[in-house]
Amino acid sequence: MSSSRPRILDPQAVPVVGTDAHLAAVDPSRLTPEALRRRFGSALDWQPEIPGDTGHVDRQLAAASVLVPLVQRPQGLQVLLTQRTAHLRDHAGQISFPGGRSEASDADAVATALRETEEEVGLPRRHVDVIGRLPPYTTVTDYVVTPIVALVDPPFTLKLDAFEVAEAFEVPLSFLMTPAHHQRHEFELQGQRRQFLSMPWDAPADGGAPRRYFIWGATAAMLRNLYGFLSR
Question: Which residue, among 65, 130, 135, has the nearest Cα to 98 in the 3D structure?
Answer without folding.
Answer: 65
